[in-house]
Automatic annotation (TrEMBL):
This is Sugar kinase. It comes from the Bacteria. Residues 13-317 form the Carbohydrate kinase PfkB domain. It comes from Kineosporia corallincola. SUPFAM superfamilies: Ribokinase-like (SSF53613). Belongs to the carbohydrate kinase PfkB family. Keywords: Kinase, Transferase. GO terms for molecular function: kinase activity. InterPro entries: Carb_kinase_PfkB-like (IPR052700), Carboh/pur_kinase_PfkB_CS (IPR002173), PfkB_dom (IPR011611), Ribokinase-like (IPR029056).
Length: 333
């Protein structure tokens, strides 16, 4: 399959999903010892939306939030980042929350507090209200997180994808499997169905195995990754981008495999790096860059987020792109 987005045809990228209040502890002491925490926001789809907005693309986020201070914080922050916010305020539900647990300055675990949140009440009617926005976009980006939040959100994602396909909007899908939200057996048919409907699917090796209904296995070389990517393409008939961590990434288009290596970095906080990667890749795709350039930009932006605390704060603007990966540069004074 030839993966091409006609950039400029529409209004940019539309995302759909939950953004939560994010509580982050300092490196020490531990939460159990009464650590003060920093309040921010985070969510896979809005992370992608911010990445694209900082790079100068139109970016829209569809969701629901509670009628509470967390909901106000989320919508205010996203608007401040240049993202168009289409989020209903739900007076009968709360805004979801996630808490990072860290040791020695490294994030070890993320706990979610989202059951019964406003986004669990996301409905097909919410999506249909913005059908014209989806139809006018270049790209609809969805993830496997939203369907895990309940039957109504799952149907909402499918409705958004159906609208996109009906109107020729390119569909991007990041598997983003979360074992804390649902079991592999429950997730597999839902995520596989979305991969079949998408024009481009992003996955890691374990997520690729999940889509294929196989047991997780390690990918040690680009050759291993290419074989796995070809299995995915054969099964789902879409463009594939396989994220391989320190090995970089592989994209498979029109039977050709393209390998994009990454540069070793010191990781401060890996959460959000995958979303940054997707945002960078979609940005390059909108500019109709060749596959290797898409992978290069995606890897650079993903690496930038890894080197800063927070889910999205390390995302670069377009003006900052030339400085990514440059060490020992003079400080402007």
């Amino acid at each position: 399959m030839n993966v091409v987005v006609t950039g400029g045809r529409g209004t940019g990228v539309v995302t759909l999903g939950e953004t939560m209040a994010l509580l982050t502890p300092p490196p020490a002491p531990r939460l159990r010892d009464g650590a003060a925490m920093t309040l921010g926001i985070g969510g896979a789809e809005s992370n992608v939306a911010i990445a694209l907005a900082r790079l100068g693309f139109g970016s829209t986020w569809i969701s629901r939030v509670g009628d509470d201070d967390f909901g106000t914080l989320i919508t205010r922050e996203l608007r401040a980042e240049g993202v168009t916010v289409l989020a209903e305020r739900d007076p009968a539900a709360f805004t979801g929350m996630m808490v990072k647990e860290a040791r020695g300055g490294r994030t070890l675990r993320v706990r979610y507090y989202r059951k019964g949140s406003a986004v669990s009440r996301l409905s097909v009617s919410d999506v249909e209200r913005y059908a014209g926005v989806i139809a006018a976009a270049d790209v609809l980006h969805v993830t496997g997180i939203t369907p895990a939040l309940g039957p109504a959100p799952a149907q909402s994602v499918l409705a958004a994808v159906d609208i996109a396909r009906e109107h020729g909007t390119f569909v991007s899908f990041d598997v983003n499997f979360r074992s804390a939200l649902w079991a592999r057996e429950q997730a597999q048919p839902v995520l596989a169905d979305l991969a079949r409907r998408a024009d481009l699917t992003f996955a890691g090796p374990e997520e690729a195995a999940l889509l294929l209904g196989a047991d997780p296995f390690a990918v040690h070389t680009f050759e291993d990754g290419e074989k796995l990517a070809r299995e995915l393409a054969a099964a789902f008939g879409a463009g594939i981008v396989l994220k391989l961590g320190a090995l970089g990434a592989i994209t498979l288009q029109d039977e050709d495999a393209h390998h994009g290596p990454t540069t070793p970095i010191v990781v401060t906080d890996p959460v959000g790096a995958g979303d940054a990667f997707v945002g960078g890749y979609l940005a390059a795709l909108l500019e109709q860059r060749p596959p290797l350039e898409c992978l290069s930009l995606a890897n650079r932006i993903g690496g930038a987020v890894c080197q800063a605390p927070g889910d999205w704060e390390g995302l670069p603007t377009r003006a900052e792109l030339p400085a990514l990966g440059v060490t020992g540069a003079e400080v402007e004074r």
